[in-house]
Amino acid sequence: MNEYVLIMTIVERGQANKVVDAAKAAGAGGGTIFYGRGTGGDDVKHFLNIHIDVAKEVIMIITPNSQVEKVTEAMVESGQLNSPGKGILFTIPLASVVGLSKRNLPSE
Questions:
Q1: Does domain 4-97 have CATH number 3.30.70.120?
Q2: pLDDT tens digits for range 80-102
Q3: Given a cut of 90, is residue 49 above it in pLDDT?
Q4: Closest by Cα among 46, 66, 42 to 55
Q5: Which residues, 6 or more positions from 65, have their beta carbon under 8 angstroms from its beta carbon?
Q6: What is the dihedral of CA 69, 32, 19, 71, to 10 degrees?
Q7: What is the pTM of this model?
Q8: Mean pLDDT across 24-28
């Protein structure tokens, strides 16, 4: 079993800080937020003649496998990710992690 997991989350612009705060309150040691742009929005916007904001925030959090369920539940609730169009969250098991300080991770 892998020791660490990468939690990737894509949310609407302006929502990432709230989602990361919830993750930290649930035990995550922190996260990285960067900006992205969805690629499917232009076709929908043109077809329906409505404005769809394709600007997104991408969250990356590395956490011990033992913390994943608690952290992801908090992120899903905070970001309302079970509601259509609010975002997506997925996890990736990590084969190795180098350069990550143990002091930035929750104790297991």
A1: yes
A2: 999 988 999 999 999 988 887 66
A3: no
A4: 42
A5: 1, 2, 3, 4, 5, 93
A6: 10
A7: 0.82
A8: 96
Triad 106, 9, 95: Cα angle to 5°: 60
Write the DSSP string, the chain. --SEEEEEEEEETT-HHHHHHHHHHTT----EEEEEE-SSHHHHHHHHT-----EEEEEEEEEEGGGHHHHHHHHHHHHTTTSTTSEEEEEEEES---S--GGGS---
For tokens 């329906």, name the residue.
48
pLDDT value for 40:
63
The residues facing 94 across adjacent strands are 4
Domain ranges of the chain: 4-97
| Alpha carbons 85 and 25: distance in angstroms, whole number | 24
